[in-house]
Specification:
four-stranded mixed beta sheet
Length: 176
């Protein structure tokens, strides 16, 4: 889970904003993003606090609370979704108008029962064949790079409808 990105997102900021505001390197922010809050340096907390215009204590408290809640990464547009995929987020919540766009992709996925039936009936070879066909079709597709990346990455996730305005994506490997 990328706690820093989730915290910044909730405060309307991104790692780039922290870099621009404070000069702290994006490489350092990227490495911090994968760590527990307890390992954040004072310099990092100060940079985040300056960017979100809060006190260091408040930032630390809010980060610790987020860590305890095991917060989900929220997605409202393509850019957010690609960032979540790059961060290898375990859970992704798709909200708002972007949920409608993702609904089309959700319809194209087979249900759990359908997938299991195909894999059992083919002794697992259907998965290999399906991947080959997908890669071949993707090679000749005229879709833009972002759309191809989304379609490729979303195959690693299961899609669950939370309510009328939200979808939850979670890694398939969590079910095993």
């Amino acid at each position: 889970m990328s706690l820093l990105d989730i915290y910044l997102q909730k405060n309307g900021k991104k790692r780039y904003d922290v870099f621009k505001e404070t000069g702290i390197s994006q490489q350092m922010l990227s490495s911090v993003n994968k760590k527990n809050v307890s390992s954040y340096s004072v310099k990092t907390i100060q940079a985040i606090a300056k960017t979100v215009e809060k006190s260091e204590g408040m930032v630390l408290d809010e980060l610790l609370q987020l860590e305890k809640e095991n917060a989900y990464f929220e997605v409202h547009n393509t850019e957010d979704l690609l960032l979540a995929f790059d961060n290898k987020e375990t859970y992704i919540v798709i909200k708002g108008d972007y949920k409608n766009e993702m609904e089309e992709l959700a319809k194209s996925q087979l249900s759990e029962t359908e997938t299991l039936g195909l894999e059992l009936g083919s002794a697992g070879t259907i998965s290999i064949l399906a991947e080959a066909i997908y890669q071949l079709a993707n090679l000749f597709s005229n879709k833009d790079h972002e759309q191809k990346k989304i379609e490729s990455q979303i195959r690693r996730y299961k899609i669950k409808k939370i309510n009328e305005n939200e979808f939850l994506l979670y890694l398939r490997q969590l079910d095993y």
